[in-house]
Specification:
Chain lengths: ~270, ~300
């Protein structure tokens, strides 16, 4: 595997492992050490301590868990919901398709993060509401993509053959159409992960995501902005981590897109 | 051309109506009793009833919707629960700041993206290209709520060149505009590169080179004009991200625009103001997008002639 592919994949793997094993590490993200308030990283304190004397390393891993779970849930819900709505509407056509296209248009008229901010603000803080708000915004892109892809393949001969053989619509969509359009949807999903990780951190930055004392990279950055002169590590560490993860997701997504695009792969 | 304009306007009007209806339902999304959420549990029953009356929440849903839409037509967005001020006044007070920020961010984005995209396309598959596209991936991946504080740390706290926050003085807009414009610059530079690469393979570009024009003349006189056309449509779409990002940027820099008002409205549970903010930002997005589409048709005769 090339370095360009291996490095992002390795870092993303670390993120997933960190997130999954947060429970195994015996972390104390909420433990307060009054004598270590704002201690910078060093031999005594691995990544340093925050303004309440809580260990940043522990909070970073707890934050990885938060962002990973939110990304997993939001992208899964959006992918399934969007693909179902988009492919059904594209295949059946008619008035249903007309209505779905209009609804998609309306949702696309909202700047995504604004709708998520408003929904999270209305529903109240909490991780489940973050997932709800981001999924309400996220399905639209998948639905639009799935619909467009279905339109381009629904008249292929193997589909006509299936119709002639008497397959019902559900079987045609599930067995003969969706497998054909999965590649672009998976690429879209990989970029969706990047967007969701940023959006979750953004909502938590605004105080609309996880509630204190629970840790999120976004809320860690927000807490850190108040101590930038005396303890820049409080902003730098969660921010660099967030940037690294999002960068790797984007790089991996680029690679995935090139790899799945047979036209480019041949060159 | 006329039919193209008409169909584009009709669909824009439909979207405006849909957006307004969706925003109307916001208040009904609040779990439990919205009046209790807004006033708090300790509010007197008489106060609750008064608020319910003034918001019209005691009426049937469809009448509420019709009243709301009628209010919109008369630019009546209700009054703030906190300040009792007409919401329209609050918005007009804040709108210039947001418009100023968005325009400045746009200018920053174009100033960064144009040279980056052109260099990457002309020096394709060289170190220049890789560096430019590397910067671009970095720009897409960097969250604005981290970039903003980083810029403040370096340019305001360490170097002391620029103000930390607020809207006083001409220099105050530099950091917010950079924060908001970076992501757009990253996306635009990628699109400019891709679009320019396609155009550079065209016959007329070869002809231009063959008749002895310099690279500069070919790029700026022939290639770039055509390459920027497809960029324009996507540019319109990306403005949504810009307007959404303005909310977070305004919070970081205490920029007194509509984005900050949105967050204040959420914090104070002033939901009518929240509704109005979301509505105004989304509607400006729809309007800008429609205008971009029409501009595109104006610039590219193939579209307006093909439609008629």
């Amino acid at each position: 595997m090339k370095l360009r592919t291996a490095l992002p994949v390795m870092i993303l793997g670390t993120w997933a492992v960190m997130a999954a094993s947060a429970a195994l590490f015996h972390l104390h993200p909420d433990a307060i050490h009054l004598d270590r308030i704002l201690t910078p990283p060093g031999s005594q304190a691995w990544l340093g301590y925050d303004d309440l004397g809580r260990p940043i390393w522990d909070r970073l891993i707890a934050g990885a868990h938060t962002s990973f779970m939110v990304a997993l849930w939001v992208v899964s819900i959006s992918l399934v919901l969007g693909t179902l709505i988009g492919s059904t509407s594209g295949y059946l056509g008619g008035w249903l398709d007309h209505v779905v296209v209009r609804i998609i248009d309306i949702f696309l008229a909202f700047p995504g993060i604004l709708l998520a901010i408003a929904l999270a603000g209305l529903l109240g803080p909490g991780l489940d509401n973050v997932v709800l708000a981001l999924s309400a915004v996220g399905w639209v892109g998948f639905a639009r993509l799935a619909r467009a892809q279905i339109l381009s393949v629904k008249n292929r001969e193997h589909v006509q053959a299936a119709v002639v053989l008497g397959a019902d619509r559900r079987r045609i969509i599930a067995r003969h159409l969706i497998p054909l359009i999965m590649a672009p949807l998976i690429v879209e999903a990989s970029f969706g992960i990047a967007g969701t990780v940023i959006a979750e951190a953004g909502l938590s930055f605004l105080g609309l995501g996880v509630q204190p004392p629970a840790a999120s990279w976004g809320s860690m950055i927000r807490d850190g902005t108040r101590y930038m002169l005396v303890a820049p590590h409080m902003v730098l560490i969660p921010g660099m981590t967030l940037l690294l993860v999002v960068l790797c997701v984007n790089l991996a997504g680029d690679q995935l897109r090139d790899w799945m695009d047979v036209r480019i792969r041949g060159r | 051309m006329a039919s193209f304009l008409f169909s584009r306007l009709a669909s824009a009007l439909f979207v405006v109506l849909g957006v307004s209806c969706l925003v109307f339902f916001f208040i009904h999304l609040i779990p439990g009793d919205p009046v209790e959420v807004m006033l708090g549990e300790s509010a007197l029953p008489a106060d609750r009833e008064a608020l319910r009356q003034s918001l019209g929440l005691n009426l049937p849903l469809y009448i509420q919707l019709l009243n709301y839409l009628e209010g919109l037509l008369h630019l009546n967005l209700g009054t703030s629960l906190q300040t009792r001020q007409p919401i329209v006044d609050m918005l007009t007070e804040r709108l210039p700041a947001t418009a100023e920020l968005a325009l400045a961010a746009l200018a920053v984005a174009v100033m960064i993206a144009l040279p980056l995209g052109i260099i990457a396309a002309l020096r394709r598959n060289t170190l220049w290209d890789m560096a430019a596209m590397g910067i671009s991936v970095l720009g897409v991946s960097i969250p604005n709520f981290w970039l903003g504080p980083m810029l403040v740390m370096v340019f305001s706290l360490w170097l002391g060149w620029l103000p930390v926050s607020g809207r006083e003085g001409a220099l105050a807009i530099v950091l917010p505009a950079l924060t908001l414009g970076t992501a757009l610059a990253a996306i635009l530079s990628r699109m400019i590169r891709a679009s320019l690469l396609e155009v550079l393979n065209e016959d007329y570009v070869r002809t231009a080179y063959a008749k002895g024009l310099t690279t500069r003349q070919v790029v700026f006189g022939h290639a770039l004009r055509n390459a920027l056309l497809p960029v324009l449509t996507i540019f319109g779409l990306q403005l949504g991200t810009l307007l959404g990002g303005a909310v977070i940027t305004e919070v970081i820099f205490s920029w007194p625009g509509i984005g900050q008002l949105t967050i204040e409205a959420i914090q104070r549970r002033d939901y009518p103001v929240l509704q109005a903010c979301v509505l105004v930002i989304s509607l400006s997005y729809v309007v800008i997008n429609t205008l971009t589409d029409m501009l595109y048709a104006w610039f590219d005769p193939r579209i307006r002639l093909g439609e008629s």
